[in-house]
Amino acid sequence: MAQYLKRKKKTSTQSFIMDMFIWVFLIIAALFILAPFVFMFTASSMPATDIMKMPYRWMPQGFYWQNYWQGIRGNDGSFIYLRNILNSLIVASTVTATTVILSALTGFGLAKYHFKGRHFVFMMILATMMIPFEVIMIPLYLIITKLGFQNSYQGLITPFLVNAFVIFLMRQYYVTFPDEILDAARIDGASEPMIFSKIMLPNSVPAIATLAVLTFKSQWDNLLWPLLVAQSEEMKTIPLYIVRFTAEKHTDEGAMMAVAAIASIPILILFLKLSKYFIGGATVFSARKG
To answer: What pLDDT band is residue 120 in, cutting at 50, 70 and 90?
Structure first.
């Protein structure tokens, strides 16, 4: 009995040490991840002279609102940043909505309908994931130019209406959905569109929310394609404005950080709003992969 208690105490001590080690590692990792964001937001509220001081003061003495005014106003006083923010919201929101809806429909069809060539179609979709965007960028640009979509929302949105990676994930999510539920709905007289809208979509909210956050972020940060398509300042998106703003000689470090902080706010809001679905969706995808 004494040996059993001694062994149990030793096991408990080892488990406690392991838990402490994991917690310390997670805290250090979180600090490394959050440090750039904390620096960005604190530096955006400081004068440029305070940002360059060493050691860096992580707690600002006051809020230097001139940085945000300069970022929104622009060095030329045109307030074009507000229009660029609107452009990014329109493009990212439209692409996210179309990508999620079309990918969910395609994934549902590939997962739950048995037709000749289904696996071939799925493999062809997967094959497109192997092609870097830089390879098809010039052909896409020529097509957009021929269609007359250059320097327009159509040109910024059209190439990203469907995403092969999102189709793959939605198909994998729907594969494990019980067929018995769909068969019971068909026996009750439900049509296929009703089955998709009333059964499949409500039961895939975590997956949809996860993919919506990832898709919105990828379009919000997209620099290369808008650099080709958007020529006028009125049609440019946030990444293009940041590149131009930081390259101007009248821009100081505080204003740069303010522009970056403003650009990150919509992503933070979206993630916080969908965080419970995002975490749940990541868990579900991990389970599906397993």
So the answer is: very high
Name the token pair of 4: 């059993």
- pLDDT attached to residue 290: 45
Identify the DSSP state of 250: T
Give yes or no: residues 80 and 110 share one domain. Answer: yes
Per-residue pLDDT, averaged over 211-238, amounts to: 92
**CA atoms of 285 and 214, how far apart (whole Å):** 14
Output the CA–CA distances (angstroms, integers) from residue 18 to 5, 10, 28, in the order listed: 20, 12, 15
CA-nearest of 131, 206, 190 to 164 is 131
Residue 23's identity, in one-letter code, is W
Do residues 253 and 43 touch, judged by C-beta distance below 8 A? yes
92 and 184 both lie in a single domain: yes
- The pair of structure tokens assigned to 181 is 């539920």
- Kindly report the pTM of this predicted structure: 0.84
92 shares its domain with 195: yes
